[in-house]
Write a structure and sequence with these properties.
This protein is mainly alpha-helical. Helix content is 65%, strand content 3%. α7 runs antiparallel to α8. The longest helix is centred in the N-terminal third of the chain and has 28 residues. It starts with a helix and ends in a 10-residue tail after the last helix.
């Protein structure tokens, strides 16, 4: 619609200023209508600003997390990772809903502790899976990225928890947002994976390394016959499967060969994860810097609550830059 209006303005420019004015007015009305409808949607959930509503939906995608072929071989050992992070994703959506946060403060607090506990349990499950070496050398990039993700999310939760204990609500908000952004990395990286898998298949020069035991586990779970042609030396002299035998698996977006399809998703995962971590770290800092009014509003609320609680340094009783760094001392505006 917008492109048609622009073409009309260009074509009718010779007819005079009135046509151009008409098109501009029509476009403005259209945009105003969209804004009004969007305002109704985010207002329904209790949001007073439209810029933070899209972030709300990031947490819903955790429900759609799916394991690629071959992952369950290792994930079954740390299955409580998924058992914890999936319900945490649902509860996060409730935690960031303003209607609940403002009108059900007790639920907000209890829900927050439950989320922190579930994320810590999930991180423990991730640590069980991290040492596994599925996919060969490409796995080392994913291992370092996953370990880094565990570190920064745990640090973010600790900072958020301490600040809310000190009633430093502005910093609690900042660190919870950082942590949720960091956790969203796993979703973005999965999306990138499904984009990059066909790309490396077209390059046609990527291979993963799987054990025969992984292949046997995958095909048995899919109720498919074992691919004997790809593993001619798979059997030991006693006729049992040589579980430790390694075979090269081509990374190809081939749904008829689940191990090749899985390999095409596993090989780029480490690189995708590092890129997404960087994007999310930068993105949340941009978002926080674009919302200084909300930060200042919450700092004033923190000041009032800390005064009521009798804390020293009200307004800066938590982990703030003016106490722990070289920032100017904060004073409430009159």
């Amino acid at each position: 619609m917008a492109s048609k209006q622009e073409e009309t303005v260009i074509d009718s420019s010779s007819t005079g200023h009135n046509a151009e004015k008409y098109e501009h007015g029509s476009s403005t009305k259209s945009r105003s209508g969209h804004r009004a409808r969007y305002r109704k949607v985010y207002s329904f959930f209790g949001f007073s600003n439209g810029y933070n509503f899209p972030l709300y939906y990031d947490h819903h995608f955790k429900d759609g997390f799916a394991l690629v072929p071959g992952y369950w071989y290792f994930f079954q050992r740390g299955r409580f990772h998924l058992a914890a992070i999936l319900p945490a994703g649902i509860l996060m959506a409730l935690q960031f809903t303003p209607v609940i946060r403002h009108k059900a403060i007790t639920f907000h607090r209890i829900n927050g502790y439950i989320i922190i506990s579930l994320i810590l349990i999930s991180s423990g499950g991730a640590c069980v899976v991290i040492p596994q070496k599925q996919g060969g050398g490409a796995r080392s990039a994913a291992q370092t990225a996953e370990a880094f993700l565990v570190i920064i999310t745990t640090t973010g939760l600790a900072m958020a928890w301490w600040n809310i204990r000190r009633k430093q609500i502005d910093q609690h908000r900042a660190w919870m947002l950082r942590t949720m952004f960091y956790l969203g990395t796993i979703i973005t990286s999965r999306i990138m994976n499904f984009v990059s898998a066909p790309v490396i298949s077209l390059i046609d020069n990527f291979y993963g390394v799987w054990s025969c035991d992984e292949l046997d586990f995958l095909y048995r779970n899919l109720a498919l016959p074992f691919p004997e042609a790809g593993c001619p030396m798979r059997l030991l002299p006693n006729g049992t499967l040589d579980a430790g035998l390694r075979v090269a698996i081509k990374a190809a977006y081939n749904l008829e060969r689940p191990e090749q399809y899985g390999s095409s998703l596993i090989q780029p995962f480490g690189a995708n994860l590092w890129v997404c971590i960087a994007v999310h770290i930068i993105g949340v800092e941009i978002y926080l810097n674009l919302t200084p009014r909300e930060t200042q509003r919450l700092r004033r609320v923190s000041y009032e609550k800390q005064m009521e609680a009798g804390f020293a340094n009200p307004g800066s009783a938590g982990l703030t830059a003016d106490r722990w760094g070289d920032a100017e001392s904060w004073t409430p505006r009159t």
